[in-house]
Write a structure and sequence with these properties.
The chain is an alpha+beta fold. The chain contains 5 helices and 5 strands, in the order H-H-H-H-E-E-E-H-E-E. It has a domain of 65 residues: OB fold (Dihydrolipoamide Acetyltransferase, E2P) (Beta Barrel). Strands 1-2-3-5-4 form a 5-stranded mixed β-barrel.
Length: 142
């Protein structure tokens, strides 16, 4: 009885797996010149003059979007005045702010600038939060 049950269950498993096979690959793979979206390659190569004009306009718009992204990045930055307390490691400095001492991450460019700074120097810097960390993007002595 157990053997019969095992054979029956195995048969059900095989039928179930075979029934779950997708036949969507068969619909488009055998048709030459057809892309996944169902358009033929000839259709996608032939663009009307209006579509070409729209492509040119979209390139102009993307340049405008890039400049607005730069402006947005400037808006995201926070300006802080503080007192330089020193460098904790190669990519972290401590600054005494109105909220107390705070650690900030620095870029390689800022790290090169900060080599001449002394503890107690008044600084003005712009930072933005990246993945929860405050990263100084620009720095000047006050």
């Amino acid at each position: 009885m157990k053997k019969l049950l095992m054979v029956f269950m195995s048969l059900l498993l095989v039928i179930g797996v075979a029934g779950c096979q997708s036949d969507s690959d068969e619909n488009t793979a055998d048709e030459p010149g057809t892309s996944d979206e169902g358009q033929t390659e000839k259709d996608t190569d032939e663009k009307s003059e209006d579509e070409k004009s729209q492509d040119t306009n979209s390139n102009d718009e993307s340049a405008d979007e890039d400049s607005s992204k730069d402006e947005k990045a400037e808006e995201d930055m926070i300006t802080v005045i503080g007192s330089y307390n020193g460098q904790a490691d190669s990519h972290t400095i401590e600054v005494e702010t109105t909220d107390g001492p705070q650690a900030f991450q620095i870029t390689e460019e800022v790290a090169a600038e900060i080599q001449d700074y002394k503890v107690g120097d008044k600084i003005v810097f712009k930072y933005k939060e990246i993945n929860g960390q405050k990263v100084i993007m620009s720095l000047d002595k006050k």
